Each structure stands twice: as C-alpha cells, then as structure tokens.
Amino acid sequence: MITIVRLTKKYGTTLAVDDVSFTAEAGRVTGFLGPNGAGKSTTLRIMVGLTRPDTGSATISGRTYVDLPNPGLEVGVLLDASAQHAGRTGREILTLAQQFMGLPRARVEEMLETVSLTPTEASRRVGDYSLGMRQRLGIATALIGDPEVLILDEPANGLDPAGIRWMRDLLRGYADRGGTVLLSSHLLHEIEVIADDIVMIGLGRIVSMGTKTELLHEAGTVVRAADLLAL
Ligand SMILES: Nc1ncnc2c1ncn2[C@@H]1O[C@H](COP(=O)(O)OP(=O)(O)OP(=O)(O)O)[C@@H](O)[C@H]1O
Questions:
Q1: To which CATH superfamily is domain 1-74+149-231 assigned?
Q2: Do 44 and 51 form a contact (C-beta atoms < 8 A)?
C-alpha cells in the first residue's frame, strides 16, 4: 500500500505538487492520470526518495522509501526507461540488480523470459534498444525482487499494441495476486482500461479520485475531469 499525505513541492514559483493526498491499495491498480506538467512525476519521485517534498509524506507499506533496508524487494520502480545505462547489455543491468538485492542468479533469466527479451536481445547494449525494449527491461528490473508494490511512470510508452496488451495482463495478474500497482499516465484510455481506482491531477492538485466504477457512475465525472484537464 502507498500512502500520500498532504504532499507539497514548489520549484521557484511553480507549485508542482499542491497538497496532494491519496492511497494506492493492495490488490488494486491505481491509475494516476493527468496532462503534461500536472505533477505526476514529481509525486512519484518524492515517493521513491529522489525528490524531497516541502511538506507532507509518502510512505510505502508504512515506511518512507529511504527507510526501506532493501528497497528493491519491497517496491519495484520504473520512472524513466531511457535512463538505464546505455553501455551495458540488458542482461548486465539485470545481473547488477540481482546481485545488489542478493537474489538467486536464476532470477535474471526468469525475468528476461517474463518480459520476452530473447537471449540475443539480452546480449545487446541498451543504447541499441528500441524504447519498447527499454520499457520491457525496466519492467524486468522493477519486478526482479518480487516486490509487493510497483510504481510505474508511463510504462506503455513505446510499446506496440501487443506489448501494451501484454503489460496490462501482467499488471492485472500482479494486482490480482495482492500487489499494489500505481500507474501514471497522461492517456485517459490507458488508465480507463486497466485501473481499479483513478486519481486525477491537474496543475499539482487532485481534481477527482475514486474507484473507476464510482467515477463512471457519477454522471461522467471522469469525462468532466478529463475535459477539465484537456485529456
Ligand atoms: N526539477 C525541476 N525544476 C523546476 N521545475 C520543475 C522540475 N521538475 C518539475 N518541474 C515543474 O513542475 C511541474 C510538474 O512537473 P512534473 O514533471 O511533475 O509533471 P508530470 O505530470 O509528470 O508531466 P509529464 O506528463 O510531462 O511528465 C511542471 O510545471 C514542471 O515544469
């Protein structure tokens, strides 16, 4: 479970995150939806200790990310698939994660299989990967420690339609087995098809949130909020 309480972050005069509170529950996919510049990435970066909030707190299963002794075993994170080391091969990147987390070596090949990267692809430098292949590798790195929580920023970016379906099934299965999934996107359709709960953000503020069913039944709340956010 992820708990965000009254989070605020200002950059100069820009209020990137403005008094944001919500939870992402275990066993559910929570969609974090908002247009470019809404404050999604800043909120996710605060959750994983990369950005310090001005006020408020973000905890994962009751603890802040920096207090987790072996974070990869508790939370899988994919923020920017293109930020992976371009000079290393996919297998090397996964092997580093496996060693860092103290996992069995077999996890590397298991993960490559899970994300359908072939042995030949796994031996190529990440700099030569397509964006879709980087996303698959990023998802493999996020999943390798078998964490209970997944935080993913626009993971469908660069995936082809078959890849998008694959990812939806993967995240659905993960949540159905009790995992917490927080999925950020600026695409209403992407979130609508997979999320159980939706948190909508615009200009740093929560615009609407609830279960997908509730929001859809509330006389088109999602549609109205989406109009408001120009999604
Ligand atoms: N390091 C930074 N320095 C200054 N301003 C920043 C910084 N990071 C984010 N911002 C600003 O904060 C606001 C929120 O940005 P953020 O990246 O969190 O939005 P987002 O919803 O993730 O957008 P996108 O969908 O484009 O990734 C924007 O106005 C952005 O310009």
A1: P-loop containing nucleotide triphosphate hydrolases (3.40.50.300)
A2: no
CA of 114 relative to ligand 1 center, distance in Å:
32
Under a CB-based contact definition with an 8 Å cutoff, are residues 127 and 87 in contact? yes
For residue range 98-125, what is the model confidence (pLDDT) as tens digits? 999 999 999 999 999 999 999 999 999 9
Please name the amino acid found at residue 191.
I
Distance from the alpha carbon of residue 109 to the mean position of ligand 1, in angstroms:
36
The preferred substitution site among 9, 40, 79, 190 for testing ligand 1, maximizing ligand atoms within 8 Å of CB, is: 40
d(CA 38, CA 53): 16
Centroid of ligand 1 to alpha carbon of 21 (angstroms): 18
pLDDT at 227: 67
Given ligand 1 and candidates 14, 186, 229, 231, which is best to mutate, with the most ligand atoms within 8 Å of its CB?
A: 14
Amino acid identity at 99? Q
- Boundaries of every domain in the chain: 1-74+149-231, 79-146
CA distance 21 to 120: 44
What's the whole-number mean pLDDT along residues 83-104? 93
Q: What is the pLDDT of the chain when averaged over all its residues?
A: 92
> Radius of gyration of the chain from Cα atoms?
17
ipTM of the complex: 0.96
Sign, CA torsion 169/172/175/181: positive
Q: What is the pTM of this model?
A: 0.92
Say yes or no to pLDDT of 219 above 60: no
